[in-house]
Design goal:
The protein is an alpha/beta fold. It contains nine helices and six strands; from the N terminus they run αααααβββαβαααββ. It has two domains: 55 residues, Orthogonal Bundle (434 Repressor (Amino-terminal Domain)), CATH 1.10.260; 182 residues, Trna Endonuclease, Chain: A, domain 1 (3-Layer(aba) Sandwich). The termini are far apart.
Length: 254
């Protein structure tokens, strides 16, 4: 959809509500000139935040569709994902957890992979890393599956069945990611109530199940910076090398 089409769509949303341009602008906390520019498709003169606020006021959402040359966009997202995985691995390792990366599973027709599986004592943590949060429903459904299978996966790795299972959704610490979590707070706060302080407390004493969201600073080119630590993830017992550096996925199950 090009800018002029989007502007006309915004106008139709407004008209269906029988609002004047001023009415929409005031509800969105913007000026009438900003609203008028949006309806004319002059998005180059507006911030992305202002555009989203106008559509959100009309109960609509704006998702970016970025196109790169020759698959460039997918490659960049893969780099962001890898950086987030590495950063959360360092974070968990520094707190005494043993990490395995890109662990695949196949159990009675349920197949997939886990970005990070972390264990400490009788607890296991399933970590789902998203460079961008697109389908909330699909993310929740798949993470429910992984959490349910986490005990078996940990047992096959360590020979011990965990007594406590936690799950963590990791997102980049960007304005867009935080805005999306805020927009779907009614769903996400119920499924992932824990945040940074609760996560740190649980990692020290994982006595009961945990579910939360953790925002990780990274070097994804979006103006954020990664917190660098000197401690890397623990060595994987079967290889003697950090799992993050092998470039291979471990297979579990039959």
């Amino acid at each position: 959809m090009h800018d002029q089409q989007a502007g006309r769509l915004l106008r139709e949303y407004r008209r269906r509500r029988r609002w004047r341009q001023l009415d929409l602008a005031e509800r969105a906390g913007l000026s009438q000139s900003t609203e008028s520019a949006a309806e004319l498709g002059r998005f180059d003169t507006l911030t992305l935040g202002a555009i989203r606020r106008l559509f959100r006021t009309c109960d609509a959402s704006v998702d970016l569709n970025i196109r790169g040359r020759g698959g460039e966009t997918d490659c960049l997202l893969d780099e962001v994902h890898a950086d987030l995985v590495r950063a959360i691995g360092e974070y968990l390792s520094a707190r005494g957890w043993t990490c395995w990366f890109e662990v695949t599973y196949s159990h009675f027709g349920e197949r997939g992979w886990l970005d990070v599986v972390a264990v400490r004592g009788d607890a296991v943590l399933v970590v789902e890393v998203k460079s961008e949060l697109t389908s909330i429903e699909a993310t929740l459904r798949k993470l429910d599956e992984k959490t349910r299978l986490a005990g078996q996966i940990a047992f096959e790795r360590t020979g011990r069945r965990p007594l406590v299972v936690g799950r963590l959704l990791v997102l980049p610490d960007t304005t867009s990611a935080r805005d999306r979590v805020h927009r779907y707070a009614a769903i996400l706060d119920r499924s992932f109530p824990g945040r940074a302080l609760a996560l740190r407390a649980w990692l020290r004493n994982p006595a009961s199940p945990f579910a939360g969201i953790h925002f990780v600073r990274n070097t994804d080119g979006g103006g954020t910076t990664r917190r660098r630590t000197t401690q890397r993830c623990r060595m994987r017992p079967d290889s003697g090398r950090p799992a993050a550096s092998t470039g291979r996925a471990d297979r579990i199950g039959t």
